[in-house]
Amino acid sequence: MIQQLSQYFQLEANGTTWKRELTAGLTSFFTSAYIILVNPLILEDAGISLSIGVIATVIASIIGCLLMALWVNAPIIIIPGMGVNAFFSYTIVQSLGLTWQQGLGVVVISGLLFLLASVTPFGNRILTAVPSSIKNGITVGIGLFLTFIGLQKGEIIQPSETTFVALGDFGNPIALSTIVGLVVTLILFVRNMKGSLLIGIFFTSILSIGLIGKPETADKSIDFQAYGQIFSQTEFGVLQIPFWIAVFSLTMIVLFENMGLLSGMLPDVKKFPRAYKAVAVSTIVSGFFGTSPTVAAAESASGISEGGKTGIPTLVTAVLFAFSLLALPVIQLIPGNAVAPVLIIIGALMMKSVQDISFHEFSEGFPAFLIIVGIPLTSSIADGLAFGFIAYPIMKAAIGQWKQVSPIVYVISGLFLLNMIASTVFMH
Fold it and tell me: How far is Cα 3 from Cα 252, in angstroms, rounded to an integer?
């Protein structure tokens, strides 16, 4: 059986081993396991109960990872996206005034549009029309966003009334354990120790628990019976303008966030078309199972950095997500700041895409720059994308190169602009 699996996942052709792939899988899971608790807590602000949120997060992650492992054979894990879950709760529900049931309807329709784009020639036209500077800008911007989240989780930075963010209190046990954990993880990582990121999570967890005690989430209980209600809850507010504003915004996010992430992380770019379709299918599944959209997670970089090249790390992650419901009391012991060092390191790894942006050509570099700073500074992938896409044709037109811009990019830019205007009107 091992030999058959080796042939199926093409270990020899990919120049990898079972040990390397399994280590990558363990690292990917423990790097992303925080989503089991963090995503439901964000969805709770939209009105989705914690029990439903936890189970929906796990099921959507399992299905997404299985799609990527068995259909694509790529080490890209699929989990509910950070940033897009905040967009679901705080923009779609709280700002646009939709119910969480209608929000799930938005996720399903956005996923269907995403799938349509990925399986039709139009999807390939979008892929080729979007400039590489924009794609790389998305990867870098999301990397900075993850770093920002990591710094916040580790309380290395804190809110400030005068400067918005400021240096945290390093006498704080959370900040102290995060910094020590980051130093240890970095030393292991730069010395190319296998499983360095995984060891870093365990080390920071033990240190944090020793200094602070168990995290509050460790005592959360899950009501599995409550989840049965979710399948009859999805609603489609097709007669409401805010519903379609939400559909457009979310579709743009899942289209271009996944485009940037997959372009920046896939070890074998030939697998991009199938991987793109897999994420689209998982987005639809997310809405039906009760969570915000799943994405090709940036945390996949942790497994890839450990040498993962096939679908085995993703399969391992799926299996561990399945067992996580049974091991939830143990996973709940992992404090939020334990993943902060890994998120910071992943953000640094994703910065490599910045070297592929033509900053010497300002009309290419500036729109990418707006995306890079816009995503973390607004804490919104959608707003960061909008800044870059709107700026790109303006910059090209200003230097007389408007004919070099694809008509598709003009349409996308115009839609982003209209969406920003409409969102402003309906949010106020």
Answer: 42
3 state DSSP class of 165: strand
The Cα–Cα gap between 61 and 316 comes to 12
Write out pLDDT tens, residues 69-108.
999 999 999 999 877 887 888 778 887 888 999 999 999 9
**SS3 (DSSP) at 309:** coil
Strand ranges (E), 282-344:
294-296
User: In sequence order, which residues have a C-beta less than 8 Å from that of residue 277 and are 6 or more positions away?
Assistant: 115, 118, 119
Average pLDDT value over all residues in the chain = 85
Q: Is the pLDDT of residue 220 over 70?
A: no
DSSP code of 416?
H
Which residues face 167 on adjacent strands? 157
Task: Name the token pair of 258.
Answer: 């996944």
**What values do phi and psi take at 218, rounded to 5?**
-65, -20
pLDDT: is 243 or 367 the higher one?
A: 367
Q: What is the pLDDT of residues 43-66, one digit of tens each?
A: 888 888 877 888 899 999 999 999
| Sole residue written with tokens 């959360």 | 220
> Phi-psi category of 73—alpha, beta or left, where left has phi over 0 and alpha has psi -120 to 50?
left
Q: What is the DSSP string of 237-271?
A: -TT-HHHHHHHHHHHHHHHHHHHHHHHHH-SSGGG
Contacts (Cβ under 8 Å, ≥6 apart) of 121: none
Closest CA to 335 of 424, 427, 225, 207: 207
Residue with more model confidence, 173 or 335: 173
